Amino acid sequence: MDGSSYLFDFMRMVRIELETGHQKPVAWMDVNGRCFFPTTDESSNSSQKVEIEIKIDTCLKKNPLKRKTISNPPPPPPPPPPPILSPSSDVTQREEWGESFIETADPPKKPRWTYLEPVSEGDRAYALVSDLFFNEMRRFYPGITITSVSKCSHTDAPGTARLWAFQLQLALTRSARGSANVRFAWHGTSARGVDSIVKHGFGRPNRNSHGTGVYLSPPRCPYSSSLLSEVDENGQRYLLLCRVIMGRFERVEAWSSQFHPSSDEYDSGVDDLVNPRWYVIWSTHMNTHILPEYVVSFKSATPVEVCSPRPMNSSNRTSAATMMSFPRLFAEIKKSIPAAGFRTLENLYKEYKAGKFGKAVLIRHIRSIAGDKLLISTIQGVIRRK
Question: In the CATH hierarchy, which fold is given to the domain comprising 92-299?
Answer without folding.
Answer: Phosphoenolpyruvate Carboxykinase; domain 3 (3.90.228)
